[in-house]
Sequence to fold (271 residues):
Amino acid sequence: MNQITTYAQQFQTLLVLYLPRVFMALLALVIGWWVIGRVSRLITVSTARLDVSLRSFLTSLVNIVLKVLLLISVAGMVGFETTSFVAILGAAGLAVGLALQGTLANFAGGVLILIFKPYVVGDVIESQGKTGEVREIQIFNTILVNPQGDTIILPNGATSNNVIVNKTAQNRALVEIPAEIDGANELAAVRAWAVPLMLADAQVLPDPAPEVVVTALKPGGMSVAFRAYTRAGQSIPAYGRLIEQLQRALAQQGVKGPVPVSHTYTRVLPD
Fold:
């Protein structure tokens, strides 16, 4: 009987000691959960101008971090020892950060690209030795498509930390088609039919006007470039049409390729 009384007294003591803590912890949990929801909605509204993927990721990240901190605080209010838990959580976070440092660098690069916008979807860019039209900007990668139809995936970390050549920052893209022709061809005659041919394409801009320029002189021939501008995002289909039309026109106009040049070497023998 005395033992039951002792247990009852201990239970009453614990109830008096912990009941207010539990009540305050539950109250803090409810209020904190409500505040976190309001903060998440506020972040969603305040970041409305950012990319949808970035906005969703930031909202989720802040929401999860705040809820973890709230649960740790509530556990401390009840009386649980949270120091070791925080230490374990910090060590785990450090280990994960070291293991995913490349991924985190790509994430940071994606955030910088989405905020500062050195390029947007539809631009033609050159980066890390690759050139193509930007089809998608993801959190970790940028997706390009080149004129050959290849899909190029660039990691955002390396892209944001290297030189980016935006070929369509002025809302126009250069289509350049190189060719090798015989040096005896009259460049003025080539321009006379090539410029109207390029202007006839619906996606080629009249200003700046298309042009034909010499890019290099070689034995027996010269390198020329047929250049035309299109609106951003229209360069790849225009490139495909123009290269086919120019190839056919070169044959119809009788423009010959470079003439092979043979070299004769004379060896002088000593007397």
